[in-house]
């Protein structure tokens, strides 16, 4: 059993209330807390006005829970989380040992002058609180206990900092409060290039009847992710229960699952190429460098990726990659958005880079440029490899706009290559 | 004056509390409400457990506000929003005229059988409530008044449906409640390449004393944004009050402000290039195509962007852009990450693309590859233009990881070009 009854997630920031910024921390923290066996009972978002936090803390205190907040710890005048927590606790803010010197030296280094008091305030905590260091920024976090017994953990607002402070100190502190990590098992399965409803049809009975492990399904863009969460039950460990369901899911979805847990599709492609000692080159028109940047976003990508071309204009396709103008111009030509040009881009890139594989992408990202024949969303993906070339038409959903078409095309291209590398059936043509 | 004092945004759904799904509706609704002149005082997320909504409504009622919720209106057993609202109001659920027949025929069409009662419940509202039709789904929304006078508008959870019900009925109803669209003025000012604390130092007195317009400051990565929200006051229109503060801010921050409101830095660069009939080419090493994809993410970029190269390996820099191997290899060479190579990349790209401008980026994105001499985060940006070439060292903050270095380098490169186009002072070197 958990020593805490539940958790509450709190987000602090005026920019959240006026809709300028979407909250990325709340769902991250909720996921993390669930993995500690703590269920989140509610989430709250408040602004930066004086007194808002104090009032909320006074209302929430008195419960046996962990309140975990993000935001409001920075150096500016409207960052009031430290001060109002101290006020709720009836204590003063005290300096964290060593923090002042570190903040001074950072300020000297980056700003070339002495740090002002509000900058140094980032290294203080309410007296009696436990400091949580921030390897990704200058605002320390902290954990404190309110007078009525509720525990409050405050993390910084920028998502990278929030996650760092959590993983490098916050999580362990929360684990200790809650009496140790529960015996829970959790897994994610990622698919792409298959509609959510098709996936749901294959596992509907599991979705409807799953209590332990509990099965969930969510779609983000083209990626559909299944989640499994298992608790131990009747002498059976959570992991054993999870493994049983996991193999059922793997059986039903087979090669449509490209990865698990924290894996990314581009990470899988880099890993499979590296395992074979092979290289990929890219030639992009409508995705404009997004595929290359996905590849080079993976640490260590330099082993498998050396060359990319962004051939946005027809003249670039010809000059950079030798695509024949005859394929693109003239009334009888297949046109710049065609299987022929997708393959010519890929083959040009493969030859110049002396790579094992190359991907060429050409399409219509919109909002303009579509025609009855080739509507916005039309994308041809060309793949050139050791045993030849082919192209596949993958029409993209246009509801998510230009970015949606571009991102969808990149995911399809990566998935097409993964399938080629693993000798899986090719992606089918998709035309609406 | 608004007839309502404020708004509250409420999201209902277990999948939000366990972190599976990120809430897209809250920030959408907050933006919409702000445009009606209603400020959001807080946001709440609750789950699907029986009683959760009832309890929250009882606590929030009695205020002169609009509570706007999304989620919990569907056909499943855990969709309790209709029933618990009726309970809070002490009334029954009643059928919306025509809804039953419409739901029956939809169910027959898609499921081929008669609709069960929980499906038909989607066409009911608490007695006395105003139905809001849902052109994108089967769950009607509604607007009702709680016993203590607070107004509650309930919208469906799927973002497309939430937005449709809002735009096609909800918004007009909210406008009527609040006494018509308010005379409010709102503006955002975006800066980059200058630390948040430096910006704050220049406007600290305004931040501390701003009531109307209210001034806010937020940082996302390298972009620092100031917001101004003005209400009419003492015979002075909101716009006049805003304009006065806006010109004060523009005076203090000058050319560090690159844009306002919905503008993006890449959008500004595309617009400035297009206005001059000029073109940009890119040659990227450590950013791996991210600069090209930022440019081509802008609709209409094809007018100003035709060619990009991703020269991730040294051999690619030589083969694609003619960068001399002597610059990169050997103990006396400046090396691949140097001013010389950044300029050579830019000049190679400019010559091949016959473009007016070219940007070359070379650096160390990390996590590996750094040295004492050239630590991770070291980035050289080369700019070649009509009147010559230069390079600037812009060391990037490494705390946000590889992606942070890459994104920071792209923003610095775009800002460097914007400054060149507008004949502003160049970005200073930044070396930590």
Characteristics of this structure?
homodimer; globular; 6-stranded mixed beta sheet; 432 residues; alpha/beta; 22% strand; 5-stranded mixed beta sheet; 38% helix; 17 strands
Would you kindly provide a written description of the structure presented here, covering whatever features stand out?
The structure is a homodimer of 432-residue chains. The first copy, chain A, has 432 residues and is an alpha/beta fold. Chain A is 38% helix and 22% strand. Chain A is built from 15 helices and 17 strands. Chain A has a 6-stranded mixed sheet, with helices on both faces. A 5-stranded mixed sheet of chain A has the order 14-13-15-16-17. A 4-stranded antiparallel sheet of chain A has the order 10-11-9-12, covered by helices on one side. In chain A, strand 6 and strand 7 form a beta hairpin. The two termini of chain A are 51 Å apart. The model of chain A has no long low-confidence stretch (mean pLDDT 92). At the A-B interface, helix 1, helix 2, strand 2, helix 5 and helix 7 of A face helix 1, helix 2, strand 2, helix 8 and strand 10 of B.
């Amino acid at each position: 059993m958990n020593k805490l009854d539940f958790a509450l997630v709190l987000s602090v920031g005026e920019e959240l209330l006026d809709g300028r910024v979407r909250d990325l921390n709340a769902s991250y923290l909720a996921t993390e807390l669930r993995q500690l066996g703590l269920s989140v009972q509610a989430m709250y978002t408040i602004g930066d006005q004086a007194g808002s936090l104090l009032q909320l803390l006074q209302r929430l205190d008195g419960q046996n829970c962990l309140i975990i907040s993000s935001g409001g710890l920075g150096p500016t005048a409207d960052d009031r989380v430290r001060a109002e927590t101290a006020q709720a606790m009836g204590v003063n803010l005290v300096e964290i040992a060593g923090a002042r010197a570190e903040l001074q030296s950072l300020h000297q280094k980056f700003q070339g002058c002495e740090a002002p008091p509000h900058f140094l305030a980032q290294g203080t905590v309410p007296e009696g609180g436990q400091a949580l260091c921030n390897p990704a920024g200058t605002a320390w976090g902290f954990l404190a206990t309110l007078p009525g017994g509720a525990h409050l953990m405050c993390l910084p607002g920028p998502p990278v900092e929030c996650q760092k402070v959590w993983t490098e100190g916050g999580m362990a502190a929360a684990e200790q409060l809650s009496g140790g990590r529960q015996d829970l098992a959790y897994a994610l399965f990622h698919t792409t290039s298959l509609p959510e409803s098709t996936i749901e049809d294959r596992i509907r009975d599991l979705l409807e009847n799953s209590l332990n492990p509990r099965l969930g399904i969510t779609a983000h863009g083209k990626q559909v992710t299944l989640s499994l969460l298992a608790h131990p039950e009747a002498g059976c460990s959570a992991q054993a229960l999870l493994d049983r369901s996991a193999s059922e899911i793997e059986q039903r979805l087979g090669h449509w699952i490209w990865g698990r847990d924290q894996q990314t599709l581009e990470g899988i492609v880099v890993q499979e190429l590296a395992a074979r000692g092979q290289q990929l080159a890219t030639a992009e028109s409508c995705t404009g460098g997004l595929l290359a940047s996905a590849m080079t976003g993976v640490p260590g990508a330099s082993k498998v990726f050396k060359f990319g071309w962004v051939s946005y204009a027809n003249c670039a396709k010809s000059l950079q990659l030798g695509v024949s103008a005859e394929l693109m111009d003239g009334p009888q030509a297949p046109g710049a958005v065609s299987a022929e040009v997708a393959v010519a881009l890929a083959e040009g890139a493969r030859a110049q880079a002396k790579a094992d594989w190359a991907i060429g992408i050409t399409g219509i990202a919109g909002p303009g440029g579509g025609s009855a024949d080739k509507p916005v969303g039309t994308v041809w993906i060309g793949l050139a490899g050791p045993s030849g070339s082919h192209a596949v038409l993958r029409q993209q959903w246009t509801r998510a706009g230009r970015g949606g078409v571009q991102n969808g095309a990149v995911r399809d291209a990566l998935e097409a290559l993964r399938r080629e590398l693993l000798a899986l059936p090719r992606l089918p043509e998709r035309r609406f």
